[in-house]
Write a structure and sequence with these properties.
39% of the residues lie in helices and 16% in strands. It is built from eleven helices and 14 strands. The strands form four sheets. It has a six-stranded parallel β-sheet, with helices on both faces. Helix 7 packs parallel to helix 8.
């Protein structure tokens, strides 16, 4: 046998000879299976109306020859690419990374791939450029994980004609938006501390540009006001443990600080370290609540009371939203809110008797 050729033998059909380095074609499979190229195409595309024995013969020929359907050609023929574009402004935060993971998992379960396109600078121009790039890469729909406000625009303006779902945003009147219940989760965290007997709750907030941080901060303040309690000054961080540590050092010097609500678990971790270094016991002297329920929060010392967010469900709802728009060819608007729940662990307790 010539080393430059691969010869497949066995079976009634004439042997198919496929030159090495050349992609196996439908014609090669048709010759091997002894059927027409149209029949191979119908089997490859999953169309009904092919006799089961013939389908089995064609599939066996595909496997023997290593045939791989040309997905790009099939997409052009069908007008769909089975791919969802995902634009994300940050992959450094827990919410963004876990939401993208949820999107990828749900898309795969639905038979779709994702094309991920990070945007370095959150501006209208960068967002539109990313959207255009995804259109060029041939996607069926786009999911945008916003996370933060645009630097140069109060509202997002996207080209029409593409199914879109936006995660963590406030434009439900214009687009389909999926988010967790940021307001309800923050309220539950603060109310838990008040129910324990704390006179007020200090807040380590996330970045001012973040939608999630904004909603959690607003809900914290509103819950205190509704209870007729004073609202302490906000101490702002940047989601990192280091910023939580700096905030914790400041709060450790506040003699009347008995309760802290941190806008995420990583900043709460920094607060725990600061309190430990300043000999303020948690929860004996100061109670601490986080937000997110990251996998390691149960292993903090002490284990962290926090608000659990179901990022997998957020990802699933985003994918389901764009798939509905693909099927109906109709845009959607409004909010889909995924519930949060408070997870009580050992970082919270009633305040010291002097403050109760």
């Amino acid at each position: 046998m010539d080393d430059g050729e691969l010869t497949v033998v066995d079976g009634a059909a004439p042997p198919a000879r496929v030159r090495r380095g050349r992609r196996v074609s439908i014609a090669d499979v048709a010759r091997r299976a002894g059927v027409s190229a149209q029949t191979v195409s119908r089997v490859s595309n999953g169309f009904p109306g092919v006799v089961e024995s013939t389908r089995a013969t064609v599939l066996a020929a595909m496997a023997e020859l290593g045939y791989r359907p040309n997905s790009a050609a099939r997409a052009l023929k069908r007008g769909e690419f089975r791919t969802i574009g995902v634009i994300v402004f940050s992959l450094s935060t827990t919410g963004s990374t876990r939401t993208v993971e949820g999107i990828a998992t749900s898309a795969a379960e639905a038979g779709y791939a994702i094309t991920l396109l990070p945007v370095a600078v959150p501006t209208q121009g960068s967002l539109r450029g990313a959207f255009t790039r995804l259109e060029e890469l041939a996607v069926d729909a786009v999911i945008i994980v916003m996370e933060m406000h645009l630097l140069d625009s109060a509202a997002v303006d996207l080209p029409r004609g593409m199914p879109v779902v936006v995660g963590d945003y406030d434009a439900g009147a214009r687009y389909s938006v999926v988010d967790t219940d940021q307001t309800g989760g923050a309220r539950a965290a603060v109310q838990h501390l008040l129910d324990l007997g704390h006179r007020t709750v200090w807040h380590v907030a996330g970045p001012a540009a973040s939608f999630a941080a904004q909603r959690r901060e607003e809900s914290w303040a509103a819950t205190l006001r509704a209870a007729g309690l004073a609202v302490p000054p906000v101490v702002r961080g940047d989601w990192t443990p280091e910023s939580g540590y700096r905030a914790g050092l400041r709060l450790a010097d506040e003699a009347d600080c008995t309760a802290v609500f941190a806008a995420n678990d990583e900043m709460a971790l920094g607060v725990l370290r600061a309190m430990h270094e300043r000999d303020r016991a948690v929860p004996g002297d100061v109670s601490v609540v986080g937000f997110d329920d990251i996998p390691h929060s149960a292993s903090f010392f002490p284990p962290l009371t926090t608000v659990h967010q179901d990022f997998a469900e957020v990802g699933r709802q985003c994918v389901q939203g764009v798939l509905r728009q693909i099927r109906t060819d109709e845009p959607e608007h409004g909010f889909t809110i995924v519930p949060n729940r408070l997870v009580v662990r050992r970082s919270t307790a009633p305040p010291p008797q002097a403050f109760s």
